[in-house]
Amino acid sequence: MSWTLILGLSLILTHEIDAIAAREWRILPGLSQLADDLARRVFVFGHVPLFAIVLWGLTGNHQGVVAAGFDVFLMAHFVAHLYFHRHPENGFRNSGSWILISGAGIVAAVDLWERSFS
User: How far from the centroid of its chain's Cα atoms is residue 69's Cα?
Assistant: First the structure.
């Protein structure tokens, strides 16, 4: 795995920890319609299969394809946060949160660019 992919993975995993403190489920379509405690549990435990799939894919036989797809996801994730920036329930109001979110998207773009020349 490249250092940029590892850094992007580290940033997004740390962002997901921060997302619990920011109560990200309150801005997500679907989850925002649920009772707060239920939405939190779905959000937290829903990350277990997501993380398992990403980690399995990044260590499996198709690492390059999965890594490129993961990079695209990280960039789309950054754009989604820009879209929801003005949402009244958005808890990502500090620079630390935005360093994690934007950092993951930027590092993913660098990783994808490096992959295109490998």
Answer: 12
Structure tokens at 8: 């992007």
- One pLDDT digit (tens) per residue for the chain, 118 residues: 899 999 999 999 999 999 999 999 999 999 999 999 999 999 999 999 999 999 999 998 899 999 999 999 999 999 999 999 999 999 999 999 999 999 999 999 999 999 998 7
From CA 79, how far away is CA 73, in angstroms rounded? Answer: 10
Two tokens, residue 52: 């398992």
Q: Contacts for 65-69 with beta carbons within 8 Å, 24 or more apart?
A: 67/1, 67/2, 67/5, 67/111, 67/115, 68/112, 68/115
Nearest Cα residue to 7 out of 118, 107, 115, 99:
107
pTM across the whole model = 0.93
Encoded tokens for 43: 């959000």
